[in-house]
Design brief:
This protein is an all-alpha fold and about 450 residues long. It contains 14 helices and no strands. Helix 5 packs parallel to helix 8, helix 11 packs parallel to helix 14 and helix 12 runs parallel beside helix 14. It is globular, with a radius of gyration of 21 Å.
Length: about 450
């Protein structure tokens, strides 16, 4: 208990940065798993990248559901700590872990059994589809590891111990970086090798988290991992985390439909540009998400303590930092998109198509940063529904807009413009909505 940090007192900027930097590093590390896979799979050709990318969207859908327990832990545990109720904080932590394990076992089984029908949604050629099915079935067996790691991360973030997930995830990434070239090229396992490397890396991450909480006892001395679930705790976790999970899950479904649209207008190169380009874009999203998560945790504790002035100061600092990062990403994507893409997929047709995606998407980076910052405020005050509504509304707009723009002659670039326009609108509406809601919160 002595390791848990009280964020309702002390220097605001230092606390925010101490929280944000490790979380940002953890987010980058989680994203780097996919980037590492893409670097090595890219050496196998655009078809292999398309296969892994197709599975990546489905994996994103499942991993999005794990956010229910990550966000549920971050908010419920942080609220209990802010109110000095440490026994309740332990109960919420244990409930999040138990729920994560149960949900992941069900979802992993479904994707393993029905892998081929799910991959068939993309309309890929048979050889690419076969690679994707094999890849999906391997990673489906590792979903319990993904869910438990996500819940452990949320619990540590809520306790102000964001450095632990950073070091743990970093260790997993190092293993993945070592195993990827060995399994993919050295052993000649191709895309399946990338899946095996990821599985073993995720297993290592969970083992390290267990070491921290059971051997080192960094959270609580008598912390129980899995317990019989009680309705009161489950209900609050679901209320807090489900909107976020639905938001991201729905986003993944929209991306699946966008993947099908990209295949229609651009073949497997179009799907490859969408999925690989989205992973490169995640450099901006996941890195800035670190500040948003830090803002959420900081806001949650200070909201429970009724320290509005500290929340306002943290918000201004977060917005300033994410805006600078957004500007850098805009310049990088707009002016050097093709060069950046070629680092991951050296095939000329692939990096030219991917560069066009990054150029158009780059125009929306600043608005994406606004959306990310406002999410932190929404989540920290326990209002997880508004971001879900905003995301679902404008992400849904992407599909008909992409089809329309493609049909009027823009082709595959119409898909990219649909993504850019919807991202811009999400940032604008998020800012306006919170400013209206702010008057009612206090």
């Amino acid at each position: 208990m002595q390791n848990i940090k009280n964020l309702t007192e002390g220097p605001i900027r230092r606390q925010l940065f101490n929280l944000a930097i490790p979380i940002m590093g953890t987010s980058f590390i989680q994203m780097a798993y996919s980037l590492t896979d893409m670097v090595w799979v890219g050496r196998l050709g655009s078809g292999a990248v398309a296969a892994v990318g197709a599975v990546g969207i489905l994996a994103w859908l499942i991993q999005s559901i794990s956010l229910m327990n990550k966000v549920g832990a971050e908010v419920s545990v942080a609220h209990s700590i802010g109110a000095r109720n440490y026994e309740e904080a332990k109960c919420y932590a244990s409930h999040n872990l138990t729920m994560a394990l149960c949900i992941s076992l069900v979802l992993g089984t479904i994707l393993f059994v029905f892998a081929r029908p799910f991959i068939g949604l993309y309309g890929l050629s048979e050889d690419i589809a076969n690679q994707a099915v094999e890849y999906l079935r391997i990673i489906a067996t590792g979903f319990p590891l993904v869910f438990l790691a996500s819940a452990f991360t949320g619990i540590h973030n809520a306790a102000g111990m964001s450095k632990i997930p950073f070091y743990v995830s970093g260790s997993g990434l190092v293993m993945n970086m070592i195993l990827d070239p060995l399994f993919i090229l050295g052993f000649g396992w191709g895309t399946a090798g990338a899946a095996y490397a990821t599985w073993l890396s995720q297993f290592t991450v969970v083992l390290l988290f267990l070491y921290q909480v059971k051997i080192k006892k960094r959270l609580w001395v008598d912390f129980t991992l899995f317990i019989p679930m009680k309705r009161r705790f489950c209900a609050k976790i679901v209320r807090l985390g489900l909107p976020v999970a639905l938001l991201n899950s729905f986003f993944a479904v929209i991306n699946l439909l966008m993947g099908r649209t990209a295949t229609t207008y651009g073949g497997h190169i179009g799907l490859m540009a969408l999925t690989a380009g989205g992973q490169i874009e995640a450099i901006a999203w996941n890195s800035s998400q670190g500040f948003s998560t830090a803002l959420s945790t900081f806001t949650a504790q200070n909201y429970a303590a009724r320290r509005k002035e500290r929340i306002d100061a943290a918000y201004r600092t977060t917005l300033w930092m994410t805006s600078i990062f957004g500007l850098v990403c805009t310049l990088l994507f707009v002016f050097w998109g093709s060069e950046l893409f070629s680092l991951f997929v050296p095939e000329q047709a692939a990096y030219q198509a991917g560069g066009e995606f990054l150029r158009i998407d780059g125009y929306s980076m600043m608005f994406m940063m606004i959306e990310i910052t406002m999410q932190g405020l929404f989540y920290g005050t326990g209002r997880t529904v508004p971001p879900a509504i905003i995301s679902i509304t404008f992400n849904t707009l992407r599909v008909p807009l992409a089809i329309y723009l493609g049909a009027i002659g823009l082709g595959i670039t119409g898909v990219w413009w649909a993504i850019c326009i919807s991202s811009t609108l999400k940032g604008i509406v998020s800012f306006i909505w919170f400013r209206i809601l702010e008057k009612k919160i206090w």
